[in-house]
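Help! Submission page says 'invalid entity' but I think these are all valid:
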Amino acid sequence: MSAVSLGALIRAHPRVGAFLATFPVPRPDQIGLEAWLDGLGEETLADLGMTRSQILDHVRRLQQEDRQAGPEPVQALTILGGRDKLGRAEAVELTIRAGEIVCIVGPTGSGKSRLLADIECLAQGDTPTGRRILINAAPPPPGSRFAPERKLVAQLSQTMNFVVDLTVAEFVAMHASCRQVADADVVAERVIATANALTGETFAPTVSVTQLSGGQTRALMIADAALLSASPVVLIDEIENAGVDRSRALDLLVAEDKIVLISTHDPLLALRGGRRLVIRHGGIAEIITTSAAERANLLALERVDAGLMDIRERLRRGERIDEALEPWT
Amino acid sequence: MARPRLVTVAGSPSVGKTSVILRVLDLLAAEGQKVGVAKFDSLSTEDDKAYARRGIPVSVGLSGGLCPDHFFVTNIEACLEWGQRQGLDLLVSESAGLCNRCSPHIEGVLAVCVVDALAGIHTPKKIGPMLRLADLVVITKGDIVSQAEREVYAYNVRLANPRAPVVFCNGITGQGATEIAFHLRHADAIDGLEGRRLRFSMPSAVCPYCVGETAIGETHHRGNVKTMCFEDQR
């Protein structure tokens, strides 16, 4: 390690550079890491809050992580039933494949969030439901289950907001650089363009993320989850209908081969999934495959939705809605 | 005498330490483990009532006018002895890192740092030994920021601490608590703390203000004093 200059080390491992940049002391490029630490002295190290050996260990681990590959592709996620709140066995073995949408329906408090939580932590019979989750038909290896760089699940929920004080372009670029994607600028542009395609009101890359409307915010979150998040599984807790093209949003996630689970009672979303899970008393009580008749009804509902969207647009433009409306279905 | 497993939980004030601990202890108590908490705070706390309501034994230490972390390290051994007398299987100490340079973690004792996703994505870069030398990092309030911000925040936590697993935990619903419980089950049982060491020194301060000085001015500066440098005076 000492043979390599700090400059070369940081060029090879940007994360080491980002870590060392948090130390407010001069860092010459030409000398090696150990020589630099030797020159700092006890008092400076005490101010930095780490010992020499702790810093060396830290740098070594960041270098190792740079060499590790990302998570393995997930082709299938399997839910093995546990028990419901009344202690009855949940007789379920459900496999969801990449590019599939599964909806979760049930009254408030029935256990929809608990199911999403079981998937997020890859439960192995150690949560209150006793469910087990398999990845590619096997239990996740114990070491990888809780490894942060292998987080399989990205989440989108109605309560989420952007809180960072950055413009859209700066923020997406920052996320791209954390993900260490090649061509971060190109990917960032694509995320913003995709988000704009999902929302009725387009926004500029120079606007602050905290100033986006509800619909714009949701659109950017969905585009980012589809195109920039490494997680192969996306859990969605409702997408409100304010200004987001929901069917296009789902198509986008599916096109990226994500496994999508949505907790929703929105008819357009619930009927778009291939299957829906009915939750009662904390357990999966039934798995309904969307029928041909339901698919036909979905088309009728989409026409109703398009009619409503059209009126919404006209109201936004200041028009009157005086004419007798045709039934859209 | 009981040999409790010991876990130190530290984090800035109001990040949600107590909520996280409650959710995790609920899971462990349901397995039949006897769990207890040593709660450190500076001026006052209501959190002991939250533990007591669940029937979790709790002892409270208020540091008052002392540095809360120095107070913590001088009392943690007595807390462990209290836990032994209570016959605990697991003792969790909860202390607020009031300055980001605080260093509460002990060699060989499972160390948890709780950070708050709402605190801003650069916060992990500003926290010293409390975050960098922890064995497990818990991120709270991740349910109210975007997935993208969660990922950037977790990345910055990873830069600050490449050793520790990172867990998002919702202190209200308990999502994520299962993962934390998994780590707490594997904490080491501790016979005693005599002779053990902190992972890094506490922030040092022996100056007149440590012992009650209130007057401002250079004539009052004695002992361990550090002065700032200004660009225009270099």
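Support: the input was valid. A stray whitespace character was the problem, and the output above is from the cleaned input. Chain B has a mean pLDDT of 89.
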